[in-house]
Amino acid sequence: MEVTARAPGKIILAGEHAVVHGCAAVASSIDLYTSVSLRLRSEDEDTIKLLLNDIGLDFSWSIRRIKEVLSHLEQRFPESKIGLASGVYAFLWLYTSILGFKPATVVVSSELPLGAGLGSSAAYCVALSAALLALSAPVELDKSQKGWFTLKAEAELVNKWAFEGEKIIHGRPSGVDNSVSTFGNVIKFKSGVMTRIDSNMPLRMLITNTKVGRDTKALVANVSARKSRHPGVMCSVLNAIEAISDEWCTIIQSNAVDDLCLSANEEKLGELMEMNQGLLFSIGVSHASIETILQTTMKYKLASKLTGAGGGGCVLTLLPTHVSGAVIDKLVEELESFGFQCFTAGIGGKGAQISFDHSS
Ligand SMILES: Nc1ncnc2c1ncn2[C@@H]1O[C@H](COP(=O)(O)OP(=O)(O)O)[C@@H](O)[C@H]1O
Ligand SMILES: C[C@@](O)(CCOP(=O)(O)O)CC(=O)O
Ligand SMILES: [Mg+2]
């Protein structure tokens, strides 16, 4: 029996980093997915295979030696890819905790850029947990279902396991990324509690990938260190970010009665993004490449902010409804002339899904 699970990436509209310290964030799923397919092998095969298509690494572990491998894993990573080792630790931990030592082949592939602020780590953990739980004994799913189906009662359990995986990759995740990847839509997240936000606004964002690699774990740790050096100032900044998240929710939930009202709301969101970015700069998570994007989009009177952990990664630019395709094309051309990569994605779609392959 083979199962494939897919889980979406996300954008954080407001509140990254502050959410790690108990303040509210607003996040939305995007329609770019990480897929994990899991095929159990016969008991006498005695191996667990992991194929990480996005980073071009394959592993094959003898089950009898898997504990030994767990303690020597880093030695098997090429020096240039050592930062990716935590994803393999998370795999082995989730696999053995949920499925035990059953032989299997697991293939991972993603449409998301890795380590760029779009929540690839959470999508990886959610898709992996969903595939593993789908073939584990305590979860009763109707395996005769055809095509993709959305998780229902099982979603909570998938989310819990994915959070444990995120802890291995991130150190101190807030839980917002795995929650929005599991449940989809637009959510508000604060101190581990998720509220679904029914947005009444058509939200268009240009996503620009600086292609500057960074590591969420290190950035989150730097913010915590700054907070312990300047507790009073940092609390004020983080509370200001929370106020921005709250206002985001109020605006996108409000009903714009006409086009004038809609563009006034879009203008307010743009201002909130600018303020959020300024505060993120003040806590030390911006980057020269991000500042270049901000200056460029400002020339087009468009507001931008980093999304995710920052330090490089992706930047969001709000595209209000009045902005024409020609203007967007010109902006994209200018941004891409710096070597950045621009794209758009559907915002607020479904969360994790599963599909059983009946042919195997
Ligand atoms: N498709 C994937 N294949 C292998 N590892 C992955 C994959 N997606 C995510 N990861 C793991 O997640 C890490 C990136 O997570 P992180 O630094 O939080 O960035 P982000 O979540 O913004 O993409 C990678 O270094 C790797 O360990
Ligand atoms: C910085 C943070 O708020 C978001 C990190 O997102 P990403 O891993 O950069 O996609 C951390 C967290 O909420 O766990
Ligand atoms: Mg991450």
From TrEMBL:
The keyword Ribosomal protein does not apply. It is found in: Cytoplasm. Keywords: ATP-binding, Cytoplasm, Kinase, Lipid biosynthesis, Lipid metabolism, Magnesium, Nucleotide-binding, Steroid biosynthesis, Steroid metabolism, Sterol biosynthesis, Sterol metabolism, Transferase. The keyword Kinase applies. Its EC number is 2.7.1.36. Residues 94-184 form the GHMP kinase N-terminal domain. Its main location: cytoplasm. Residues 265-321 form the GHMP kinase C-terminal domain. Pathway: Isoprenoid biosynthesis; isopentenyl diphosphate biosynthesis via mevalonate pathway; isopentenyl diphosphate from (R)-mevalonate: step 1/3. It catalyses: (R)-mevalonate + ATP = (R)-5-phosphomevalonate + ADP + H(+). Belongs to the GHMP kinase family. Mevalonate kinase subfamily. This is Mevalonate kinase. It comes from Hibiscus sabdariffa (roselle).
